Amino acid sequence: MPRYAQLVMGPAGSGKSTYCSTLVQHCEVLNRSVQVVNLDPAAEYFNYPVMADIRELIQVDDVMEDDSLRFGPNGGLVFCMEYFANNFDWLEDCLGHVEDDYILFDCPGQIELYTHLPVMKHLVEQLQQWEFRVCGVFLVDSQFMVESFKFLSGVMAALSAMVSLEIPQINIMTKMDLLSKTAKKEIEKFLDPDMYSFIEDNSTTIRSAKFQKLTKAICGLIDDYSMVRFLPFDRTDEEGINIVLQHVDFAIQYGEDLEVKEPREEEPEEDTNYDRFFQDGIPE
Fold first, then answer.
1. Hey, what's the torsion of the CAs at 155, 157, 158, 163, to 10 degrees?
2. Exposed, middle or buried: residue 168 (CB in 10 Å: 0-12, 13-18, 19+)?
């Protein structure tokens, strides 16, 4: 049987660890087994149990304190992830070979890992070799997306990850529970956006004709091909969490290979009208 994986991605502070923790608690209620792997070597705190922690392999602080390397925070994290990519056997030992595994990979927040560096692409390819069906879950902070220009920036980040990794991807707006009622109503238009309306709304703001043309081309590409849509994620809304989980399950075809239980055979009742109908033949 195949195994299943979510790559939980997104900018720093977008709520990746909270998403993993919320999903674990939700699946416990559903009596589903979900495990979490921490892939952030700079993580300081998360409130969920992990089956593997990359900090046991390498940590950013150790790399930054190495006098021969002298990396800063970003360079140190990239070094850690490249070291991890050269030691996938450590991850294989941690994951084991249990069939029907469902694992959340809590990934780092550096956006370059999903746009132009090959580390996460190599991870996807390795997971697929281990018979994982992988889905990307790209998170953006809903508080960041309430303005159209910021929204367009978030869309482009999600699209870059989608194009780079070449796997099914679900895009999610997190922290909906932190928005005011007014902001929640305002952000509804960003969940399934009409990109051309954004151009009209900001036609007076963009003074440069070149930028107007570029913005129109980007909006047209996204709108014409329906490439990026967002689901709202409110950690206090069980129904909304279940909808997100259903979308991810559908993307990786979770449950389609489960064995179907045969219905219990019941002894037919003796001399029923249904039996006599076929024994006697169809009446004329």
1. 120
2. middle
Alpha-helical runs (H) found in 50-135: 60-65, 73-85, 88-95, 112-115, 119-129
Q: How far apart are CA 60 and CA 189, in angstroms?
A: 39
Of 142, 165, 162, nearest to 226 by C-alpha is 162
Query: pLDDT below 70 — which residues of the chain?
Result: 198-208, 225, 256-284
Cα 160 to Cα 84, 115, 117, 232, 259: the distances in Å are 22, 5, 12, 20, 37
CA-based torsion, 157, 163, 166, 168: positive or negative: positive
3-class SS at 18? Answer: helix
- Tell me the two tokens of residue 136: 């990307």
pLDDT tens digits along 204-252: 555 567 777 887 888 887 777 677 889 999 999 999 999 999 999 999 9
Token representation of residue 125: 């390819």
